[in-house]
Amino acid sequence: MSDKDLIESGDMKIGWVRSHMPVLSIIRENFEREQPLKGHKIAMALHVEAKTAALVEALAIGGAEVTITGCNPLSTQDDVSAALNTRDNINCYAKYDCCSDEYYEAIDKVLDMKPDITIDDGADLIFKLHTERTDLLSDIFGGCEETTTGIHRLKAMEKDGALKMPVVAVNDAMTKFLFDNRYGTGQSSWDGIMRTTNLLVAGKTVVIGGYGWCGKGVSLRASGLGADVIVTEIDPIRALEARMDGHRVMSMAEAAKYGDIFVTTTGNVDILSKKHFEVMKDGAILANSGHFNVEINLEELTAMASSVRTVRKNIKEYNVAGKRINVLADGRLVNLAAGDGHPAEVMDMSFANQALCVKYIAETKLENGVHPVPHDLDMYVAELKLKSMGIEIDKLEPHQTEYMEGWDCGT
Ligand code: NAI
């Protein structure tokens, strides 16, 4: 594709999602009028696709200078990256399928602008700031973190006294994880798997590793598509929830024998490893929706395989003792590496939180450590979203408030 065609294609993608992100659009209009980010420099490492571009535009329109790179080498869309580079006050360094050196060079380039606010999905920028670029820490007002795995990393740093900047845990806003992680990952993981394999889900046995917010969504949609769902867990409460939601629950050692399609959503390592590959059926399909490509142990699978070949775009077939085991998108998060990520309406809420949290960081002197998204901001996003959907809800009447808050009425 020529540069002109790339830009045109990126512009079209961004225009489409923008028109399906009403909450972010309202925030963008307010930002344009109020210029709350004037003079701020924002460095970002997020999946560079169209919804992210809509967020980047809103921040730049709010007065900020923005640099961005990817947070995963396979999730970048080069047309979106090219379109972003035509905008004022935005520089994008992300490139699809770049090698590891290029990936980390781009993270350095993003930080070269000497940001005062960061936005991460997986804490790559913050990690770099605390290791090789510590000279930049003194300029930082704070950062935002988008995903569960990033928050785990940051809380571990905070516990060890190693976190030297304030970070807002955007993932933990209710208007983020209850919708993005559950309904977003639920739909987009199946979108990625179905468009990549072009196979039927109905009638298949699907094994979901982990029944957190992502696992719940992926299981829910697998059931809806007609699959027989098996869940694996390590947490007894979540295992019970999965059972009472109607799924079979068992260990992965057992489930590995039955699965036609496996989807990992734990944020942990080695959910699928040698002992599981050994007992899998011929033709098993493995996909990961957790943040890092560590949930399927590809080193062990490669060592076991007599041959590996690409059988279709984004599908590698490993020949293990005459059995074919198919891995989607090299075990990277399947909804982004083999799809377009979450639906725009869901990212509308996640990125509304991001934009409002950036403003909050710019206006508030926060202590070093991990901070929650302020409750009123979370509620504001929910209210705007409901309004955009044309939904009105009831309000408490004064006597109802009195009843709920009192202890002396009612029998
Ligand atoms: P969560 O903490 O709600 O759920 C993770 C679940 O995995 C927990 O119930 C935990 O008990 C379980 N688990 C941990 N180790 C396990 C093991 N060895 N076997 C079975 N289960 C195990 O986290 P959430 O929000 O569901 O996120 C999961 C992962 O997905 C994270 O890496 C997160 O960053 C990522 N994520 C990916 C998205 C995407 O677009 N693909 C979107 C949002 C989050």
Brief account:
The protein is of the alpha/beta class. The protein is 45% helix and 16% strand. The longest helix has 24 residues, at 174-197.
Structure description:
With 411 residues, the protein is α/β, with parallel strands linked by helices. It has 17 helices and 15 strands. It folds into two domains: 3-176 and 342-389, Rossmann fold; 184-338, 3-Layer(aba) Sandwich (Rossmann fold). The strands form two sheets. The protein has an eight-stranded mixed sheet, with helices on both faces. The protein has a seven-stranded parallel sheet with strand order 3-2-1-4-5-6-15, sandwiched between helices. The radius of gyration is 22 Å and the shape is globular. Bound molecules: 1,4-dihydronicotinamide adenine dinucleotide. Residues 147-149, 177, 180-181, 185, 209-215, 232-235, 238, 265-268, 271, 289-291, 333, 335-336 line the site of 1,4-dihydronicotinamide adenine dinucleotide (NAI).
Strands, helices and their partners?
Elements: H1 3-18, H2 22-34, E1 41-45, H3 50-61, E2 65-69, H4 78-84, E3 90-92, H5 100-111, E4 117-120, H6 124-129, E5 142-145, H7 148-159, E6 166-169, H8 174-197, E7 205-209, H9 213-224, E8 228-232, H10 236-244, E9 248-249, H11 252-255, E10 261-264, H12 274-279, E11 284-288, H13 298-304, E12 307-312, E13 315-320, E14 323-328, H14 334-337, H15 344-363, E15 369-371, H16 375-388, H17 398-405
Parallel strand pairs: 1-2, 1-4, 2-3, 4-5, 5-6, 6-15, 7-8, 7-10, 8-9, 10-11, 11-14
Antiparallel strand pairs: 12-13, 13-14
CATH topology of the largest domain: Rossmann fold
The CATH fourth-level homologous superfamily of the largest domain: Adenosylhomocysteinase-like
Task: For the largest sheet, list the strands in their spatial order.
Answer: 9-8-7-10-11-14-13-12
* Total tally of structural domains: 2
Strand-residue fraction?
Answer: 15-25%
Shape: globular
Q: What is the chains' assembly state?
A: single chain
Under the CATH scheme, which architecture of the largest domain would be assigned?
3-Layer(aba) Sandwich
Separation of the first and last Cα atoms: 73 Å
Number of helices: 17
Small molecules bound in the structure, each named once: 1,4-dihydronicotinamide adenine dinucleotide
Biggest β-sheet, characterized? Answer: 8 strands, mixed
Low-confidence sequence ranges: none
Instruction: Classify the helix fraction into a percent range.
Output: 40-55%
Category by helix and strand content:
alpha/beta
Radius of gyration, rounded? 22 Å
Pfam families: AdoHcyase, AdoHcyase_NAD
Domain S-adenosyl-L-homocysteine hydrolase NAD binding: 181-341
EC number: 3.13.1.9
Catalytic activity: S-inosyl-L-homocysteine + H2O = L-homocysteine + inosine
